[in-house]
Amino acid sequence: MPEEPIPTAASESGVTPPGPDPAEPAPTEQAASGPPDSASLGSSADAPAWQELALEELRHRRQQLLDEIHQLESRQEQINREIQSSVTGQADGMARRLKGFQDYLVGALQDLAVAAEQVDLVPQQLLVAPSALDAEQAAQASPPPPGPAVAAAGQFSADEGLIREQLAGFQGQPDFYAPAWKLRRSLDAEAAASLDNWFLDQGGRGAQPSGGSRGRNALVSAAAIAILGELYGDRFQTLVLASQPERLGEWRRGLQEALGLDREDFGPSSGIVLFERPDALIERADRLEERGELPLILVDAAEQVVDIPILQFPLWLAFAPGPGELMRDEEIY
């Protein structure tokens, strides 16, 4: 038979136990399982402290970056100041100095221009009226006889005796042991006549026919140098013009043998100077005249044109080539 339920105290008393309230929420799983453990409480409590530590580290790093940026900006400003003080400042000082020098030059040039305007470039001639006594004496005196034309053209008329004596001596036996700057070779009659004409008829300024070779022309020139040495001593210098070094070499050898010279006698400060260009020769002759010395210019027969400035000097001798001589010279060189 079925078992009867055992009566409880509540049932015995006639009171039914209260059931669950439908309005109350159902207990959660945590509540059902009991109170939370200590590990879960510790993790939830440490979460705000970790975030604060990370934020503090970021703030510290940000402050370091700001400090570095500030240092770099300060360094940049210092470099800019140094650049301005070293480049711009120096440039300004240099500009001021250049401006002052420019003002000085402008003032000096203006003073020079004013002084040049005041200089009398053309000296005024002082005209003196002749007195009555001078006019009377001039009327009483007979007019001087007109001299030969060579006396007006030349400057050796007073030395005619010495020149012809020297030329006559050159036509004798050669003196191979004569001192330097004396002629050691012999001249033929034709060469002596050429020099006589050049000294006495042309006054030491003119052209003479070539002897047919550069060696013969150098011999004639050496005789002229020896005579001029008797007249002027060492107060003149010989300048030789030939447009090629080979021709100048022949001139040097010919003069060296005829006058007993050494290599040291050919150079800018010596007795004979060799030139390839006429402008350099003219400049040298001008400097000699400024020092009060006398240049003797010798022009090679191969020079087809004699520059006009050469003709203004008191002593020059040019050799005119004969028929076929210039052509043969061009074939050789």
Can you tell me about this structure?
There is one protein chain. With 333 residues, the protein is α/β, with parallel strands linked by helices. It has 11 helices and 5 strands, in the order αααααααβαβαβαββα. The chain has helices at residues 9-13, 29-33, 38-118, 132-140, 149-153, 160-170, 189-201, 214-232, 245-259, 278-290, 325-332; strands spanning 205-209, 236-241, 272-275, 294-299, 315-320. Helix 9 (245-259) links the parallel strand 2 (236-241) and strand 3 (272-275).
Strand content: 5-15%
Chain-averaged pLDDT: 77
The number of helical elements comes to: 11
Number of strands: 5
Strand order of the largest sheet: 1-5-4-2-3
The biggest beta sheet, please? 5 strands, parallel
| Radius of gyration, CA atoms, in whole angstroms | 60 Å
Shape: elongated
Instruction: Return residue spans where pLDDT drops below 50 for at least 5 consecutive residues.
Output: 1-45, 121-128, 142-153
- Gap between N and C termini, in Å? 167 Å
Q: In terms of structural class, how would the helical and strand content be classed? A: alpha/beta
Strands, helices and their partners?
Layout: H1 9-13, H2 29-33, H3 38-118, H4 132-140, H5 149-153, H6 160-170, H7 189-201, E1 205-209, H8 214-232, E2 236-241, H9 245-259, E3 272-275, H10 278-290, E4 294-299, E5 315-320, H11 325-332
Parallel strand pairs: 1-5, 2-3, 2-4, 4-5
Helix pairs in contact: 6-7, 8-9
Short précis:
Helices cover 55% and strands 8% of the residues. The protein is α/β, with parallel strands linked by helices and 333 residues long. Helix 8 packs across helix 9.
